[in-house]
Design goal:
α2 (about 25-30) runs parallel beside α3 (about 50-55). The protein is of the alpha/beta class. α2 links the parallel β1 and β2. The chain has a seven-stranded mixed beta sheet with strand order 3-2-1-4-6-5-7, with helices on both faces. It has helices at about 5-10, 25-30, 50-55, 70-80, 100-110, 130-150, 165, 180-190, 205-210, 210-225; strands at about 10-15, 35-40, 60, 85-90, 115-120, 160-165, 195-200. It is globular, with a radius of gyration of 16 Å.
Amino acid sequence: MTVSPRASDAWLVIPLFNEAQVIGEVITAALTTFPNIVCVDDASTDDSAQIASNAGAAIVQHPFNLGQGAALQTGMRYVAEATDARFIVTFDADGQHRVEDAAAMVERAIDEDVAIVFGSRFLDQRTKPGWLKKRVLKTAVWITNQQTGLRLSDAHNGLRVIRRDAFERLDLKQNRMAHATEIVLQLSRTKLPWVEHPVHVLYTDYSRAKGQSMINAVNILMDSILK
């Protein structure tokens, strides 16, 4: 896959915290399609920021750990103020998102003239999250839909494409996993057109070994309930 003019009009925004083992590979793979990447290092205690920088990403660093929502907000502000990019793509640092899905979502945003493309792992059968995680995520999606008025199938997928007229209106305050609900709520209030796009989320040996899968799912559910 090679860089296209359309991909050149988008910046990947990657929240980064202690992903030194995989972030270099993630950046290298993404740069084959997206020439513009900013990683927001949320006070990692390993070499994540240096590895990401060596791989070719721009780096913004938090002096203290503020959470993924704050990292996303910092990344969006960086793109809004330092570039004239038309789109951002929110993209995870742990290798679970596919570059080809992100590229297809940017293409769809342009071709269909929509402001937001939400990635969904539940529009087809490729993603295998496991029964319990799927139940937790589906419950969190139902709660989010009640809160936002949208009807999404996967409201807590970190892979999204957001056009400038939408991301410039975002002001995330929830720093933990509740930001996933907050970003949907704020995007819904823009009244800008949106679609969902099927994506394949890769649950890797690395992410499972870190114990992220169920912990994040439960955090999403609890933060959604307590929001």
